[in-house]
Amino acid sequence: MNMYCPPHPAEVIKEDILPELGLTVTQAAKQLGVNRVTFSRLLNGKSAISAEMALRLHAWLGENSPSPESWLHQQADYDLWKASQKQTFSVQPAFVV
Hints:
Layout: H1 11-21, H2 25-32, H3 36-43, H4 51-61, H5 68-86
Helix pairs in contact: 2-3, 4-5
């Protein structure tokens, strides 16, 4: 597990991709076929990249962009790190060696 918080995967969209494309959040959301509020929440790390959104991002950015699987792996890394910082689980091992 990472020792540091990995960036939310949508951070690269907000910080790099939108400025490079010269698009506003509203314009990008329209191109993606999603609600502006939904896309804004994603860009601000308030929601996760779903499987559907990963497919949309890949279709939107083209074949040379990160794969849907890559977006989901980045999201999983982020989610696991966040969960590991919040909770300590009291678990009894299923198998004792």
